[in-house]
Amino acid sequence: MNMVKRTGGCCIIRNLHRPGHCATRVAVAAAAWAFATSPVLAGVPCIVPDNGGGTINLPPMGCNGYVSPDDLHEMINGLPLGSTIQVDARHDEFFNPMHMPGGSLGGEIETFGSFLNMQMNGTGALAGYNHPVSLQVQCETHTGPRTPGDPIQSFPTDMFMLQGQTLGDPDFDLLRITGGTGFGMPSPGHTTLVRQGGPGSPYAVDSFFDVFYRIDFVGKPGGPLGGMSGSTTGTIRMAIGTPSGFCPPPPPPAIAACTGALIQDCAAGGATEFCQPRCVQVNQGGVTVVQCDCREPQECHVEVLPGVVPFCTGSCPLNEQCQETVTPLAVGGYQLCCDCVPIAVDCEPDPTFTQCDPFACPPAPSPAGAPCVVPDNGGGTITLPPAGCNGYVSPDDLHEMINGLPGGSTIQVDARHDKFFNQNEGPGGTLGGNVENFGSFLFMQMQGTGPLAPFNRFIGLQVQCQTHTGPRTPGSPVQSFPTDMFLLQGQIMGDPDFDLLRITAGSGFGMPSPGHTTLVRQGPPGSGFAVDSFFDIEYRIDFIGRPGGQLGGMSGSTTGTIRMAIGTPVNDQCIPRCMDHDLQTGQTSVVDCECRNPNECHVFQVPGTVPFCTGGCPTGTTCNQTVQTIGPGIVRTCCDCVAPPCTTQADCDDNNVCTWDQCTAAGCTHTLTIYGDVNHDGTVDIFDILCVLDAFGGVFTTCTALDTDLAGCPGGDGMHDVFDILGVLDAFAGVNSCNCPGGPSPASPVSDAALRSDAGRAVAPVSLQLVPDRTALRAGQDLIVHVYADGVADFRGYQLAVDASGGRRGTLQLRNLEVDVNHKDYVFENHENYRAQDLSSGRLAGASGAGSVTSSGHAYLGSFTFHASDDASGRFRLAVRTGDEATVLVGSGRELIPLRPATQLTVQVR
């Protein structure tokens, strides 16, 4: 639409028509014909010199700042009824600018100081109020990516933070201006730079922000605003403009597209094609169509509209794309042509063998799951967020709660964002594309660490969300655009463990959460799209523990940033796999290319050096370099991820009890296995139990040491003890203690270290008694010591060790250890149970196959036989050995049962 506004007697026509994704092009082209005029007129882009890098520095200097050409800021709240203070503002005089890569739009961050020069005029009861104010502000803007050197650079911008205040003004005790996305007030914008000649020439700048602002004030007692105070919010467009008093000339006449000699007969034989522009030349605002072609109405062509910078639009046949070709002209300006060009159908070297062809690599499937495929929504794209993809998860990290918990403790949160509902989508947002509002659930598995290791909860939290997405072109086979998690918040109250648990995230709350989404069509038009999508979410978790619960008396707030993603990233690129190098001439050629992650193993060359391999590889493989001579003085270097050579199974340990690590002729392999299936026959049975019992005794004839080390999760602990026995017994009973993907029903993973240090969940402490078969013996005789536990409760298993020391000379040497299952006080007398002995380390173990035992009396655990050497004499002391390799009592939940100090036994050897 056109809006007419009178300013100082000048009739200014604002062209506000902004069709689709070409919004910024319209703003530029509405005055493109006047680029060379001087002084700069309101609404006419300002001319800024090249900064030497093929672009300009932002914010643009020398443009008379940003003004609001069509509206005024206003102060309303806190003023007399019917009154306002209208604020005509100019944002200018930028100083101390700093630039750095990054920001919410993936391009650059600019921080700077500036002045907000404001003319304040009252209305209503405040008519006649007139007060100029110059307010120093601090600002931060974010910009999207741009390509220096391009004749047209068009990119999104965001006024991320703007704030300043004055104190002690004659009329205000306080006057504060706040604005920007970082303060929860979305302030998107756009900037377009158009080169005015050849390389190095200046750029015409069209730039605006739709600033969401808040004005807070407190009137000064005795002044015209004494006793008044208030806060008013609003949104206003601030754009590069000029001082009032200049009126632009009328708009240029409409451009005739294909006229005169350019017109072709495109309807011959009943064809449906039309004569459409293929190439145009733009110079000093003038647009000339120089070539036309017969094309379908919706086929790729140059769009030529009055007052609009020409641009390419339209669709192409399958495996082709509408491509812009921009060529600078010697006389200044540029030529723009639009054509359907083939999309590369393979990843191969280019015809010159100097690099790989640009090729849109398809998503590569992986065992962890290829990108989710979502049906076309009927419009040549998909609806976001994508349904049916098992949500967004964090593949490489966990959320954490830290602040407010005991020292050394955290609560790690494995979260999945899923089950989207009440979805609605519309144009707008900070990225110039769409805004998506929806409800969803945040499913959280919460696991404590340190003193909070016993804490384990699964919570489903309903949240409300808003995401912003950049422009995309429905129908395109590859649609890649920025995204932003703008708002995410949900909370629960009255939970058994939390009086309050609240999750807050997103740029709209001042926590930048940028992301990106790529859609790749999986077939012809109408077929589904593979979705690769992620957000780098900055979040805050607030909690108040419930009195009497596991977190009673605790409260805190923790912030962090984590990547939440769907599927496998679709970021493969066509990169070199093999290069040939001529040792005599130093020339290098690319001879083979593959679609790989740019950080994955590939061949690379620094000019003047021999090609070499660089990059990483998936777990269990390494970047292998092969070099072979293929001709006189020519060597070929190829790079591939291969399994490393190995000699034993131990060489292939991936520190994961859920995989079967094997050393094969091809290298290491890692196969998912059933938890507890230590002999890898596909089931957990008595043979696996026997293998673990053998391992306790140091016997590995049937199963390996690596396979039988089941505890703790995830990678074992390098020891074979009662926890491994309990692990295989649990697996036999259908409990998957390490949550392995393969195996019986999952149970909460429990770390061996946590169990050993955790007394919070243990039952009452237990005393151990050493009872000898005699208190005096002769040299050369045997001594049997029986071990009893007094008052066990909820008891599942044990590991024992008894040491002898002292004497004047000679030794008491351990000769045998056993569990007498026929003993009338045997602790597991009426339970299926398993025993194991390790004479080399002096340990024995016993465990109930299922269930636990409670006994108020003496419970027999096992017997140790010592032999007095022929030269032994004196008093010898026998005591229970403690520590990881020694005595441990375990409850039904695999928690450690604390021991009271054990009494020592003294025997006399004569």
What does this structure look like?
With about 900 residues, this protein is mainly beta. The chain is built from 5 helices and 50 strands. Strand 45 (about 835-840) and strand 46 form a beta hairpin. The chain is globular. The model is unreliable at about 1-45, about 240-255, about 365-370 and about 745-760 (pLDDT under 50).
Structural class: mainly beta
Approximate helicity band: under 10%
Q: What summary fits the major beta sheet?
A: 11 strands, antiparallel
Low-confidence stretches: 1-44, 241-255, 363-370, 745-762
**What is the helix tally?**
5
Question: How many strands in all?
Answer: 50
Proportion in β-strands: over 45%
Inertia-based shape: globular
Radius of gyration: 38 Å
What's this model, at a glance?
The protein is mainly beta and 910 residues long.
